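Risk register update: the risk of archive-format incompatibility is retired. Evidence:
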Amino acid sequence: MSPRDISGESCWELIHPSLTLVFISQGDYHIKFHLRNKNDGFQWNLIAVYGAAQDEHKQSFLTEMVQYFQNESLPFPYGGDFNIIRGPNEKNNDRYDDRWPSLFNAVINSLDLRELELSGHKFTWANSLPQPTFERLDRVLVSTEWEFKFPLATIQALPREITSDHTPLLLSFGDRRGASQPIFRFELGWLTRDDFREVVERSWTSVCEGNMAIDLWQNKIRRLRQFLRGWAKNKSGHYRKEKKELISKLDMLDKKAENQTLNQWEVDLKQTLKSRLIQLLREEEIKWYQRGKTTKLLFGDMNTKYFQLIANGKHRKTRIFQLEDDGKIIKGDEQLKKYITDYYRGLFGPSDISPLTMDESRREDIPGDR
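Archived output:
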């Protein structure tokens, strides 16, 4: 989807074929659409915003923003022209007044919204003066639930049309379809499993093929990597099921405790269920801590959501939108993948003629034990 400036107002154009969109309502400063993903039925709202340009109306705009999201139950992105910057770094000169940015940031923080990082441009608006003022007035804010559903979502600035003073923004969901198989990742959380050592030992001792030590080692590592990939996928399914069952049983006991005193067996069962749930949540927390590559808040309360948001942000920052080679622009996932693969294959691939040979029978120049 991309917001475009038409007759001084911010509007949105739906260009994603896998969504069903229905107009719901509008306020003084926003238009709301209800969307449903055709592939999995996931429902969310899209709110296109056009903030007040005049200072005397900005208070009303922020008030509407707070009142709307206090009653919003579905995940959402909230984007368009806010007509407010968030800090002095979003303007190219020192004519800065902190009044509205301060209130705007306070509203964003109070509503627990996250801003998707912009790529392609630093600013999104410019006037037509000989020495123009540049500001970042356009942005996309999302709820944490929506970001969990679309962790690879990104915002890219498109070329500005000659008739508009705003830069269009392209919101990409970061579709995983067609992506190559991810590299193997050893999860630190696996070490919390009681049976993990035995699982590794069984896999490691089951491979005895290889004429040389290095061949045997490589075969063992290859087999262990393949085994752990499938083992982790299987365990992940069991983990989700067990977590759901534990939460359901604890909820039943809590509801029962609201009306009558639990007997000793039920009290002990509740503690056992809670201990197991904490163990599962701890493994999940370590997983996202590892991917987030941050040491903040590692110990103490469960911080899984925090680490997951950090990991999502880092993942988005590493995304490549386009490359340039001798004036030619390479765009699109498939074209980028092919170009990068061919480039490094040519850089590190084997040469047609190699002056090197290997002679395993020669050992006289190998130092002996002293």
